[in-house]
Amino acid sequence: MPTTPIILASSSPFRRELLNKLQLEHQCISPNIDETPLPNEKPAEISLRLSIEKAKAVAENINEGLIIASDQVAEVDGNALGKPKTRENAIKQLLSMSGKTVTFHTGLCLFNAESLEYQSCIEPFHVVFRNLTEEQVSNYVDKEDVLNCAGSFKSEALGIALFEKLIGEDPNSLIGLPLIKLVKMLEQEKTYIL
Hints:
By secondary structure, the chain is an alpha/beta fold. It is 31% helix and 25% strand. Strands 1, 2, 3, 4, 5, 6 and 7 form a seven-stranded mixed sheet that branches. Helix 3 (87-97) packs across helix 4. The mean pLDDT is 94.
């Protein structure tokens, strides 16, 4: 098993739970960065840039270990969707996705705090939404706490009822951490899961 310290640059309980699947001993450090998109920045570019910035922010305070950072931006009709924060925004977001394909861009960065080198990628995942009524969306938002979830749903729970189909290489990326790509990146750093 790995002897290099593993740090998850996140306060997200969802990412922590996903990383636990790999049975890696790790600690969580919440990065403190400005997540405001840059002018004319595309959703995929935002997710990649923020993943790298999160890792670098945590690396400023440590001198060894592998820092895992991720960020996710949902895109519909060319526009980025963030976390809704309110019930009204969640309903509005979900209705805007009704009958459409939404792409979730999940950026991933593995940063070596000793060498200051990193690997990064964007893992896209596509969600085809059913045609939804306002009543269905309202019922969903009332049943599941999604106010801090990009796109206003949890695919690993009741949110699955909103979808026609899911298209992507790693379902974990939809939840917020592309584990298949992460395993490959860890192996490049001589940190093996199996």
